[in-house]
Amino acid sequence: MEYIDFKLQPVEKFIAEFGHFKNKVFERFDWLMAKYQKFEDEHTILSSRQININDKLENHEIRISTLEKKHTS
User: Fold this and answer.
1) Mean pLDDT over residues 39-48, rounded?
2) 37-44: which pairs have CB atoms within 8 A and are 24 or more residues apart?
């Protein structure tokens, strides 16, 4: 029985080290996903703001064109 325990010690050590490694990978993955979510949220907000700015700009262009036509007439 001691022989089997002796042979299994490296396997048990590997399993323990792998568990530690796996936990570190998951911690980093959680951090990365949080950063990605933050980036995605910021991108969504900025895209929405850009649409509003473009709409305002288009509205101003139309109004300026109308005023210019009236002024030149």
Assistant:
1) 94
2) none
